[in-house]
Each structure stands twice: as C-alpha cells, then as structure tokens.
C-alpha cells in the first residue's frame, strides 16, 4: 500500500512538474512573442517616424491601419483616408495644416501601438493580430504607393499649373516690361529731342552773348573816343579861359574873378586834364578805359566832372568872349 501511494505521489509529482514546465514554456513563448511585438511596434514607429519627414499622408494611413485588426475596416478607413489625402493633396498650398495632421497621425500611431501591445496577452491573439497586420500592412503599402503616386501626380499637376501660371506671369511681366520700355522709348526720344532743342537754344544763347559782346565792343570804343574828345575840347576851353584871364591886366580883373568864381574849380580840373592830354595822352586814355571797365573803382569821377562842365559851359564860353573883347581893347 505504501509503495502504491509513493508511486501515485511520484506520478502526480511528475505530472505536476510536466505541467509546470509546459506552463513555463508557454510563458516564455508569450514573453518572446510580446517582446517581438514590441520590437515590431518599435520598428513600425521608427519607420513611421522616418516616413513622417517626407510623407505626412502615408504616415497617418499606416498609423491608423496599425490600430485596426481586420483588413476590411482598414480598407474602408483607408478609402476614407485616401479621400482625405486627396483633399490634403489638393490643399498643397497649406503646409501648416499638413504638418499638423502629420503630427496628429504620429500621435495616433504611438497610441494605437501602445493600445495594441496592452490588448494582446496571449500568443494566439498576437499571432492573429500579426497576421492581420501583415495583410493590412501589405494593403496599406499598396494603397500607400497608390496614394503616394496619386499625391505625386497631384503635386506634379499642381506644379505644372503653378509653373504654367508662373510662365504666364513671366510672359505678362515681360510683355509689360516690353510695353513699359516701348512706352518709355518715345518719352526718351522726346526727352532727347527736348534736350537737342535745349542744346540748340543754349547754343543760340551762347552765341547771342558773344554777338552782343562783339556788338558792345564798338559802342564801348565809341564811348571811350567820345569821352576823349570831350575831355580834349573842354580842356582846350578851360586852358583858353585861364590864359585870357591871366593876360587881362585891366581894371576889371578883380570883378571878372568875382563874377566867374563858381567856374574856377571845374575850369582848373579840365585845365589839368588838358595838360595831361598834351603831355601824357596814353595815361589819360588808360584812365578812361579803366573808368569804363571798372566804373566803381573811379567812383564816376570823370563822368561827374564832364556833367559839371557841361552845366557851366555856357558861362565859360561867355567869359571867354568877354576876355577876348577886353584883350582887343
């Protein structure tokens, strides 16, 4: 009886050891499968993060496919996502919204991966999910390639449109610049014509002063000669008056000096000029020329003397006649 009990206990112990060993193997397999799933999810998240730099649309699709176990729901949601992708492809001019959707897709991928890892305790569910993932991944890859090609074609279409628009704008700007240049040409021509006319006018103006100066030269010479002649004439008269008065030793000498006292200052000035004309004609001529060249330097002295003499000339002539008559007596 004791032996049979020991045998029964031994068989029970051996069977329990076998059960424990089998359960340990199952747990090891579960741990290995969970670790492999974690590594797969990490590689998926890494591939997703790598693709996020260049393909924001495909990231959102693969992230959503990873969180859905069956291929049918993935295909339906992928169709809806392709529509959203096409819409986002049409919205090629909105990089901010695309980057935001890409960031949201990456967040959903990480959440769906963590959710999938937490919801797979046994190896069978993991293997089933992995099988569905492979199918969905193949579908997602095919659809991603299609959507990428479509988005690329859409982008190319938008590029061609933008290029054509830019070409049209370039042609417009070229035509506008050409028209602007054509519009500016007649203005420049008119400006050149105006400048030519101005230069002609300036030439005429430049010639007219020279002509006026040439015309002024003889008039100036005439004035100088006129002044010289007047100085000579008035100087002779003054010299004659003083000579007659000096020779008239008569009883009326004192009376004549008193009578013509106002004439003596101007008469003596021209008497001196007459002596200079006789002895130093060139010096008198130079003074007269300087008077015309620089009137302010001489302070119009000669001109004033001539004017004063002309005012008193009649009296000077009368005095000369009186002295001549007295001399005859």
Automatic annotation (TrEMBL):
UniProt keyword Lipoprotein, yes or no: yes
Signal peptide: 1-21
Record's keyword terms, sorted: Cell membrane, Coiled coil, Lipoprotein, Membrane, Palmitate, Repeat, Signal
Gene Ontology CC entries for this record: plasma membrane
Amino acid composition bias (Polar residues), ranges on this chain: 59-68, 124-142, 163-173, 207-218
InterPro entries named among the record's database cross-references: VlpA-F-like_signal (IPR049890)
Membrane topology: Lipid-anchor
Keyword Cell cycle tagged: no
Main location: membrane
Compositional bias ranges of the Low complexity kind: 44-54, 83-119, 145-159, 174-184
Coiled-coil residue windows: 299-329
Ranges where the record places region Disordered: 27-219
Compartment list: Cell membrane
Domain of life according to the entry: Bacteria
Compositional bias (Basic and acidic residues): 27-41, 69-80, 195-206
Protein name: Variable surface lipoprotein
UniProt organism field: Mycoplasmopsis bovis
